[in-house]
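Thread: "does anyone have the structure for this chain?"

Original post by V.I.:
We have the sequence but no experimental structure in hand. Need at least a predicted one for the grant figures.
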Amino acid sequence: MNHDPAVPPAGAWPADLARRALEQMPWPCLVLDQQLTIRYHNPVAQQLLAGSASGASFVALLERSSQAKALTWLQRALNTPSVAPAELHQPTADGAIITVAYYVTRLNTPDAASLLLLTGQPLTDTVAATQRLINLNRRLSVLLSTSTVAARALALDELLDHTLQAILDELQLPAGAILLPVTDANAALRLSAQRGFAPAAEPRLNTLPQHLLAEPAPPTARQTVVRTPLDGELPLTEADVPAARGPWLALAATPLRDDERSLGWLITTSDRYHVLEGLRDLLDDLGGLLGRAIHKARLYEELRTTSARLITVLEAIDSGVLLVARDGTVQYANQQLGRLLQRDISAWPGQPRAAVMPALQVYDATPSMGELWTLPESGRVLRRYSAPIHDRYGTPLGSIETYSDVTASVEMDRLRDEFVSAAAHDLKTPVTAVKGYAQIARRMARRYDDQRLDHQLAMIEARSDELARLMNSLLDVSRLRGRRLQLSPETTTLATVVTRAVRHFEFDLHRRRRTLTLDLPDEPVEVVWDAPRIELVLTNLIDNALKYSPGGEPVELRARATGEPTPGVHLTVTDHGIGIAPEERERIFEHFYRSRQAIAQQIKGSGIGLYLARAIVELHGGRIWADHARHGGPGTSLHVWLPQQIDAASDA
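Reply from O.Q.:
Generated one for you, tokens below.
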């Protein structure tokens, strides 16, 4: 059988025949050496390359945005039997930039040097634009699908599992995995989710980042790394991915990031290298999207954990707790509150506070326990504490209320007050008798001119007055706490009230050689006060000033009439004593409170004098406060301002 003379014989084709064949091709054809220099180009390629001659670098003739991609692609073609096509941007002779789809084939020569045969297919603007739209649509579809799944999942495990499946489905990849640090402070990774891998491959998945991120191409903070077996030995093969169809398993590692922080890795696989290579940018975007979703899921888990701990603590305390939102709806109520109020609070969350909270009545006594309320149906007394809640930016969130059962404490206070009142009443009679007999004995001692006996009887009389003042104070405290203290205003003068108060200290001032200086207005000042109780206020202030001043130092009582805005009187008692720390100047008026210095120096006191003084002053419509000494040295000045006239009747 004879061969057709138009058909070349079997074997190697003549070089001139091959050259003529390439020159007749309607597409650009180029032959590159291992340095990627153009060794041959056909007329179509010469026209496409703007007339550039052989010997030029093919990569240098491309548009700048395609040069790095072309360099990686061609170097891979020199070492790989089959490489996917690449779309490269090519400047033309008229200055336009077109997209050319290049196919590459490695040619082996007798001298063992590899040559690359490039065949190009220029894409028209319509084809290129259509392809870009298809790629953009796919990109948007993948991102939208993944973000939708991530938005629906709050728990971290659910988020990882569902988003990984969505990514693999949208990108049509056979397998993938997500690796996260064991803890925030621990850089060790663990497999947190996987799809498509064989069970035997799971223990080796944790070593993937070390293999994928090894030299020679370490990733940047925002770069997906793609590896194949040709880049080095990988711990996984196509046998670990049951759905893989080809013998070349390519792996991609995408950093999961929130802003600039690395949160873990997304591992994706394919049996076609060019698939993952073409998904680099999309995988980078997915890494940022998934990283932010993981960060939010972790915050949600931390919030759930913190909330669970908080609820455990709130359920364990012995006080009732009620959390109310800004709109007045109940957010939380613990079981102890239900027990205190004798209500079922299970349905309270989400309900208006006013609709579920039972009505409480103000308790009719005022122990120093805070805000007290009582349940009408049971008579139990509850102490309520309420405060607003703000976030860290100061925005109001609502309020918290706590309730404690203080019924037993209130009853003990009541019994104590009754005992103190009864004891004070019972002691008044013998004290009055002692004082009366002492006065009679003093008159007899003077008749016989016995000065020593007169001095001793005067001391008995002074101590009797002191006991009487203490008992009157105890009775007034009892009346005050039981809301039974009533004022009896009378018209008198300022000088009269002050003189009566000072008279109680005449004996002790003379005996101890102490000085009490009076600074009163020259003109008489008429006042309408409960004179005995204002006298009690002044005696308490003077007694404290003498008690806390060292021996021999004078005490000053100063009084001045004031005008605007309301006519009144300003009284000041100043000593040279130990002073009061600024942080304690308000607390010294609390019930039974004594300053730290007074306790340290073992100065005797009951802690009720200033408490009662403030109550009496405030009942008169005035105020009392402590300040540094008016003379500028060590000591304290206690100030009292009183209106010059109060109503005819005033109750506590």
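V.I.: this helps a lot. The longest strand covers residues 97-108.
O.Q.: and Confidence is low (pLDDT under 50) at residues 1-10, 215-221.
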